Amino acid sequence: MRYAAITGWGMSVPERVLTNADLERMVDTSDEWIVSRTGIRERRVVGPDDSTTSLSAAAARQALARADLTPDEIDLIVVATCTPDQFVVSEACLVQAELGGRAAAFDVGAACSGFVYALSVASLFVQHGIHERVLVIGADTLTRFVDYTDRSTCILFGDGAGAVVLEASDEPRGLLSTVLGADGAGNRHLYAPGWGAVVPESAALFPEFRPYLQMNGQEVFRFAVRAMGDAAAEAVERAGLGFGDVEMLIPHQANARIIDAAARRLDLPLEKVWSNLDRYGNTSAASVPIALAEAEATGRFAEGDNLVLVAFGAGLSWAAGVVRWGIAGVKRTVPPGGVGTAVDGGGRRIATGAAANGRAVEVAGV
Ligand code: COA
């Protein structure tokens, strides 16, 4: 059986920091209110030279370097975003243009649930033997669409990108289970009017038209706690595991109270729940891969450990999956006459093989 192991990962956020004190000067709010209601202290926002593409490419380069691969060796790029730099062409094509290579490229749209959706789609391409190496990116620049006069939404969002590289493995690594869901009728609770093809007409009819993010915070809050808890529990069950087998829950970073409530619903101690919300706010599709990259850097999980990724977002949508960390069973074929290297998840060289007599050699993972 083929699996899709995560062999590289990376993240990128803009340099500019927007603190709660900055927001106090922009809208009627306070650091105390924001921290107690959301857990957010600061977030990163794009500047004039940043874009969804530039953040995505930076995260992707890190992930590729960690996997010891070049863009030419990638077969497919999948980008999860709801803030592409252009609607035509896909964000994935813009990223490919930036990185180089000739990978197939397409976007997945599931708002803040997007990265987990994209990971599940991309994993299928690897599991079914259609592609060997896939780059999956979650990236958003929602602050470009946030109304900085609306205190109920402008405090929540930040920008960023996270990326992973998937490679075929014959050991159970990468996504072991997936739970995807949506309640389209709930679209009215979190949406941005007129970013799509209806804009010209709407804009003509309503000159005061404001294409900013609209949100019913309380409704989304209630939905989020239920959706994250239920999806995570189902993903663990579908993987044939219990929460005792899970090293860490990596949830979408939207609100600390939502994360705490979901963890309580799962009876999971908070030490097992990753959060970096205080520094980045809600980065939409980037939140889970950024959290994954930062959690890995702490050394809290290693080869063979089980992680639960879970997200919710506009749609309304939700997504969860169990990921078994590590690269056991990943093999790289060295081209005839060439020399190849296998690296472990930390970028360390673990095996080198050289092709002899024009025959390819396989360099196995750990
Ligand atoms: N600063 C100060 N007061 C604020 C405020 C701010 N930034 N934003 C809202 N308020 C006020 C409201 O106007 C309201 O005042 P009122 O009682 O005088 O009418 C009061 O605070 C309570 O508002 P409420 O909406 O009930 O607050 P809340 O506890 O539900 O917190 C959210 C608001 C947005 C933080 C919370 O609902 C939330 O996080 N929801 C989920 C949103 C989310 O995750 N969206 C992204 C999904 S991917």
TrEMBL record:
Domain Beta-ketoacyl-[acyl-carrier-protein] synthase III N-terminal: from-to ranges: 106-184
GO cellular component entries: cytoplasm
Protein name in UniProt: Beta-ketoacyl-[acyl-carrier-protein] synthase III
Family note: Belongs to the thiolase-like superfamily. FabH family.
Assembly and oligomerization: Homodimer.
Catalytic activity: malonyl-[ACP] + acetyl-CoA + H(+) = 3-oxobutanoyl-[ACP] + CO2 + CoA
Domain Beta-ketoacyl-[acyl-carrier-protein] synthase III C-terminal, chain residue ranges per copy: 237-325
Cross-referenced Pfam families: ACP_syn_III, ACP_syn_III_C
Enzymatic class: transferase
Enzyme Commission number(s): 2.3.1.180
Species this protein is from: uncultured Thermomicrobiales bacterium
